[in-house]
Amino acid sequence: MTEIQLAELSRVLFFPVTMLLYLVAMGLYLYALAFTKVDRAADEPAIAGTRALRLGTLVAAIGLATHLGHIVTRSLAAGGRVPWGTMFEYSSVMGFLVVLAGLVVFQWRMRRPEVVGFLLLGSLLTMGAALLLYAEPGPLQPILNSHWLKIHVFAIMLAATVFTVGFVFNGLHLIRDTAEQRVAERETARLTGSTVGAAYGGPPVVVENDESPLGSDVERADAPADLADGGVRGPADGDDDRAYGAALRATISPWRLAAGTFLGTSVVSWVFIPASPTVEEGVRRFLGINLALVLAALVAWWFVAKLPSAATLDSLAYRTIAFGFPIWTFAVLAGAVWAEQSWGRYWGWDPKETSAFLTWVAYAAYLHARATRGFRGRGAAWLGIGAFAVLMFTYYAVNLVVTGLHSYGGLPG
Amino acid sequence: MSRTDSPLPPEANPALRRPSDPGPDGPVGFVLASLRMAWRWLRRMRTALYLLGALGLLTLLATVVPQFPNVPRTVAQWRSGEAGPGRFVSAIIDLLGGYDVYGSPAFLALLLLLFTSLTACLIPRYRAWWRVLRRTRPPRSRHLEAQEQVAVLDTAADPADVHAAARRVLAGRRWRLRAPDADPDLPDQVAAEKGHVVREGGSLVFHTSFYVLLIGIVLGQLLGYSGQVGVVEGKAFTDTASGYWTSTPGRWWTDADHRAFTLTLDEFHVDWYRDVRLGGQPRVFLSDVTVRTEDGEEIERTVGGNDPMVVEGMKIHQLDWGYAPRVVVHADGEVLYDGYLTMSAAEGGFYSGAVKVPGADPDVGFEVFFWPYAPEDDDGTPQLTGAPWADAPYMVLQEFRGDLRLDAAQNVNTLDKTGLAEGDVLALRPGSLAVLPDGVTVAFPELRRWVGFQVSSRPTAPLLLTGAFLILAGLIPALYASRRRLWVGAAVDPASGRTRVTVAGRAFQRPQAFEAEHRRIVASLAAALAELPPSSPPPADLRPGDAPTEVVPR
Ligand code: HEM
To answer: Which of A321, B16, B384, B549 is deepest in the core (most CB within 10 A)?
Structure first.
């Protein structure tokens, strides 16, 4: 096969083949979730539609195979280099890794198939954004041709994948937590006539004679939240799951959720307007991306009763982001080493570096918030979402727009 | 209730606050009290969070606003309103120091605050960590049954033997054990902990490595050097204070620190993909150089984009390149100008530069435009393309006459045209020559290329690398190590006369993983207990060494 044929095959494998497979798999996972009966005592939304689930797993696995095929053919079409040299390529690999993590880590290892549908959704969004940035495969600029490309960009990609998963959990957590708290508040109000907050926190812990809690916040810091997998639930309405589910959903207005999501995601996605060939095309892309994200938020809302408890989602988000943070740290440091190799200075505060640092600070702030009283829970989740917005800014905006302002003097992204 | 789950904020937690001494009164007392308050504020994690937020905001500003040290030209355009959000907004940005965020007083102040806050919170953390490191008594538990993980074993062995066995099992798994209690009133109990030293230690290493980075950066700026110079093929430059076009010496860098080597650019290799699909994408970008050190040693080497060369501790990078056409200007048989223009590509693929000849009467200057690939079409007109390969070089010169005012500082590549009169336009191919009406001739005898090199000395690079390594080395245990506690309490059950062993534990992180660990520990303990002799004559139905049975699996 010629390189041009390979490139064509690779493109078809990406779209429509893999994206369609993921779409079908996502449908099957969500279908299975829809018929899941939540055993709230165990906090294990034991997925009921096992046949749909198994089929979904199969389709997702086939999707992973065709996605891998796309990545390999693309790499060959580009002359056998690593398949992460352009924005399209690393967005595509990220979409692959998100699904891989969903199947291997969350479904197989952690036995949480109920989140996989949402991860497929996250992957589809990433891949959709990749399509907008499609570029034909080609060889690398000589300046990019270095071992550090493999190390640095791969680490960035990996960390961004992990953060994408963390974002999915943060988003689900926000919706679920809001619903839980509102139901609990209503219950408390009904029972006591006041609206003073619902109980939130881990089980009581008795430790005697603790000679020295480390520092100010440390010892107290992460104990309850990570322990509190049992989570919080509406106090009084324990019997009827259907009613509880309906109550959860009823606490959030889909219109306001949609409008809020649209406004929120616009903050970053506007960059597609100046980055597009024409303004109309840009507006189309902008609307496409935002409406897709609004749809995603509505899907999460629809399934709010089937989600793991807010405490579980919080813990999943925290652990995911805590896993990604050292990888991002390593990636940024490796980038500095590469910059010294290739441009003769390890740090120059150019927009890409500055913004990678900003992402790092944002996630560090999330980790701190998670350990700070008063920021726990939704406050931290918002910080996590903000950090992801910064990551997206680093990933897309800096290449697309800041380059457009000519301040990114032709340096590779 | 222990401090661990105190519902009070840290400030209200009496155990965390040192007894406040009233201190002196009056203004001194006021200042001291304010300082103490500031220190306490800086010690709060929430403060660190706000400071990180402020750092984030400043950095965001620096990402979207062009920074003077990086792109001075873009900043000039923003300031003049030629590009960017307009002059008014630009003036506000200037006022806020937004064009040089990392050199602005606000950034320095924030950095100072961050590091003060870091220090303020690290001192007590180090103290506490030191105490944990040295403590021989991990805390006891009063209510074993109330812990997260509880298992109860039943055995015939003596409680003291059970405790000894538990110590052996836990020590074998490298748990820190509580030294035996001197107080006879306390019921006997084995208390152990794990992960505390590593987790907090990692966090301390992580946070402390910021100081290493800070020192590395500051020292590096004081001691370091970097200079940039363009070298035309076949020419050379020497590493001296005046040998560079631009340089940024550190404050403690002296001229004597230069290594005084000479670098000759023997040949520059550049090539592109020329097919339609990839047209113009560069493929090769390499410089063959010869370096002669002061001692006369000669080194031949090829320097590439990711492949710098090190000479006596100075790093030589190939940064950029351009075309260097040679231009010769004659008048009355006398050479007025003979030099290589070091031109950089502008957008659109053409090159621009300037020739300034003060010796003519009046001064003559040329604005020079150069296309590497301008083939002639059928009727002989040059087709100006943006292709970078020099297969059909073509040069256009616009003549200007008048006072060039060369005594004022000027950019070599641009001509200040104020007060100059526009003259003829000349077009040249390599090897050709043009004659102006007054007999001045302009020749384009040959085309070479030039390479921009950077020579730098970064004496603190190893320190910075160490700091980077420490960040990671600290971060990983700080995030992944889990702190857990375990207690084993054995007591004779008066009813049955047998020994009831409670194995209780709790993890501050990753409870699921701890559940499995607890199960394994209980199993090893059960195995160890099976080896123990019974304490007293066993009841008739039990043989010595009877395997203990788990009573309350949880
Ligand atoms: C300025 C004063 C600072 C204070 C008072 C502070 C305090 C703390 C504390 C108490 C923890 C432990 C939380 C836990 O156990 O989970 C922590 C963790 C962390 N800090 Fe800071 N920190 C400061 C500065 C910074 C800075 C400048 C950064 C980098 C942007 C940073 C990044 C982190 C990260 C990533 C963690 C999580 C890793 C860990 O648990 O140790 N910190 N910080």
So the answer is: A321
Q: Do B285 and A372 touch (CB under 8 A)?
A: no
Separation in Å, CA A212 to CA A220, B206, B256, B490, B509? 11, 21, 55, 26, 18
User: pLDDT (tens digit, 9 = 90+) per residue, B22-39?
Assistant: 566 778 888 888 888 888
DSSP code for B382: B
Full residue range of the structural domain in which residue A53 is found: 1-139
Q: Domain check: are B326 and B447 in the same one?
A: yes
How remote is the CA of residue A208 from the centroid of ligand 1, in Å? 27
Question: CA-nearest residue of chain B to A401?
Answer: B64
Domain extent, residue B490, equals 138-194+482-553
Flag whether B226 is in a domain.
yes
* Structure confidence by residue, pLDDT tens digits, A39-61: 655 555 555 567 888 999 999 99
Contacts of A372 in chain B (CB under 8 A): 45-46, 49
Nearest CA in chain B to A205: B147
CATH code for the domain in which residue B518 is found:
3.30.310.80
Q: B369 C-alpha vs ligand 1 centroid, how far in Å?
A: 56
The domain tally of chain B equals: 4
Say if residue B19 is exposed, middle or buried (CB neighbours under 10 Å; 0-12, 13-18, 19+).
Answer: exposed
Calpha distance A397→A270 (Å, rounded): 9
Instruction: Tell whether B335 and B295 lie within a shared domain.
Output: no
The model carries a pTM of: 0.84
A372: left (phi over 0), alpha (psi -120 to 50) or beta: beta
Q: How far does residue B207's CA lie from ligand 1's centre (Å)? A: 7
Selected residues 341-360 of chain A with any CB under 8 Å from a CB in chain B: 341-346, 348-351, 354-355, 357-358
Length of chain A: 413
Q: What is the ipTM of this complex?
A: 0.82
The answer, for A192 touching chain B at a CB cutoff of 8 Å, is: no
Residue A272 tokens read as 């597609």
